[in-house]
Amino acid sequence: MARGHDWINTTLPDELLLEIFRNLDSKSTRDAMSLMCRRWLSLERFSSDTIRIGSSGSPEALVDLLARRFTNVKNVYIDERLSVSLPVDFVSYWDMGFVKDGV
């Protein structure tokens, strides 16, 4: 095998990686897998049907962000015990155009 070649990402189709993600038994494992590369992060977001978020921040900006990032979400749990969902000045970044689609 050639050193430095990304065999997994060049060989495995999205459908197979999604099936692997669906069979992971813990959220912490799925979160760790999503840190491997942007493709895996995107696939993990696509495969998520339930998310838990903090209750702070602008509701409109949060709903818009969640709808773009997690396209298959069926359940959203709002937990007041979680830390801040969005940066305090997220809305100003949003309005100024710093936050782009796909973020």
Automatic annotation (TrEMBL):
PROSITE patterns: FBOX (PS50181). It comes from the Eukaryota. This is F-box domain-containing protein. InterPro entries: F-box-like_dom_sf (IPR036047), F-box_dom (IPR001810). CDD domains: F-box_AtTIR1-like. Residues 6-43 form the F-box domain. It holds the Pfam family F-box-like. The lineage of its organism: Eukaryota, Viridiplantae, Streptophyta, Embryophyta, Tracheophyta.
